[in-house]
Design goal:
By secondary structure, the chain is an alpha+beta fold. The protein has a six-stranded antiparallel beta barrel. A hairpin with a 3-residue loop joins strand 2 and strand 3. The radius of gyration is 12 Å and the shape is globular.
């Protein structure tokens, strides 16, 4: 299945909240519609997670997402849910810094 948006390399530690608790993880790529989380945390397709992403300027924002797929032992892809205009603009800034 083709992606809806282009992914951009974006290496940043994030705080991940999910059914089993809270963990530090790492984003390895990001798009306007989702991201990939490098972690060995066990989740299931369809799980809802919250990801707190901090930009290089220190501003942090939470994003609600749904686990779209899992690469066992490596991580999982997240599709962002219910993005606000503020979150969309924040993502544009992250993507802009990733491609600059």
């Amino acid at each position: 299945m083709p992606r809806k948006q282009d992914r951009h390399t974006y290496l940043r530690e994030v705080e991940l909240l999910f059914a089993s608790g809270r963990r530090t993880a790492r984003i390895s790529d990001i798009s306007a519609g989702g991201c990939y989380i490098d972690t060995i945390v066990q989740v299931f397709v369809g799980d809802v997670v919250t990801i707190h992403i901090t930009a290089s300027d220190g501003l942090s924002m939470p994003f609600k997402g749904q686990v779209a797929y899992i690469l066992a032992g490596n991580g999982f892809g997240v599709e962002f849910l219910d993005l606000t205009d503020v979150q969309t603009e924040f993502l544009k800034g992250l993507i802009g810094s990733a491609t600059a």
